[in-house]
């Protein structure tokens, strides 16, 4: 019975990871919060690798057409000069994606050894509160900006800079990308597509590094629990991603902002009573 309850807890964590990875409310912050609420010991790097890989695969399936177009355009641009004009826009879009992930890559490497210190209810509460406040700010200024659809290099640099802060638990990666994109008056649909494609590119090296670290550490794996979490994360990411791409609007930022403020205050309070 105890083992069954543990499996349920892993599935809940997988559900939380899958939904919050897509929504602008911070998956890492929610995992820290739910680990405390469910009284689950830190699952460790292997668990994070499983759930992040599940989200990665789900997003690849959602955007496989865009990914395939970008890959084809990249090689055509490099090796077929006579066709470069046809694929120039896709090639430049890929360059913009690479530019946008550089800041978070550098920040991740610099702070990698210190991330454990930020996985506390206190730091997560403050970060979620900050995320919520910024999302509310995006909602309140929504009428002041005329949106454009095409991602510019300035858009990519701005989103890359704001996305960099998402290495800290409680700062939403998708939320920070939305904040950066809306600062530049980019349409929400363009921001979301750019954000998810950034996540896919980021996940390739981070997953490889995680696999290496797991092998090196020789961490004990609860195979059934982790596989259950993987499956739940995959489904939650996929269906939440489809819903968000169809339905999410800038007007909805007020709800996510209020929610993050509330959860942030809750985490802050729990820090002093748990």
Q: What are the salient characteristics of this protein?
A:
274 residues; mainly alpha; globular
Structure description:
- With 274 residues, the protein is mainly alpha-helical.
- Helices cover 77% and strands 0% of the residues.
- The protein has 11 helices and no strands.
- Helix 3 packs antiparallel against helix 9, helix 5 packs across helix 9 and helix 6 packs antiparallel against helix 11.
- It starts with a helix and ends with a helix.
Mean pLDDT across residues:
91
Oligomer: single chain
Give the overall shape, derived from the CA principal axes. globular
Q: What is the first-to-last residue Cα distance?
A: 26 Å
Helix and strand composition category:
mainly alpha
Q: Care to count the β-strands?
A: 0
What amount of the residues lies in strands? under 5%
Helix content: over 70%
Roughly how many Å is the radius of gyration? 19 Å
Largest sheet: none
